[in-house]
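Notes from hallway chat w/ T.B., transcribed later so I don't forget. T.B. wanted the structure written out for a chain they're using in a teaching module, and asked if we could keep both sequence and structure tokens in one place. Agreed to drop them here.
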Amino acid sequence: MMELPLSHTAIFDLDGTLIDSMSVWTEVDRKCLESHGFRLTPDYAAALNGMSFREAAEYTIRRYGFSETQEELAAEWMRMVEDEYAHHIALKPFVREYLTFLAERGVRLGVATASPPELYGPVLKNNGIYGCFDTFASVGEVSRGKEFPDVFLLAAERLGADPEGCVVFEDTLCGIRGAKAAGMTAVGVYEEHSSAQEETIRREADRYIQNFGELLT
């Protein structure tokens, strides 16, 4: 497996990295846009990657001229996904095994996610891995999205770790760039919904994996 830095600190993205949730968000985006007379386009979905609910709502209202407020649109999205996160979304392959592998070796674990606590808490608890993590950081707690280092630095601060001693696992290009901007080691994780960016992710990440099973051998 890839050698972790001496500080033994790993920070994981949630959606598309730990959990198989991206199809849920694609469906939410599709339904939301269609209800307003628009079609879902790849560039819209790509633009929302790594944004908080607040940022995504602001972007959508600005782009399409929706009459809803930011708060109303964010609440609509939340209603559409809460049940899926609490009851139906599964882990990606070998996630549980890899988290156990790291924890048994004293590696401190954190989550840095664009999803709010109302989503990441239930989905991690339903899959029995919430207790694996020492801390959580959400994009909603910082001023900028995942293409910037803010949320990764917040996670590192809460873990008591130096940024250069952290390994970040991310499935999106913006997440890889944000982790690198934070001075962290970045590992790209395959996700079908990010496949159009795979070549660039491979080039910019320090390592790329198809799934976490590769790190168990």
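Follow-up for T.B.: The CA atoms of residues 124 and 192 lie 21 Å apart. Might be a good example for the class.
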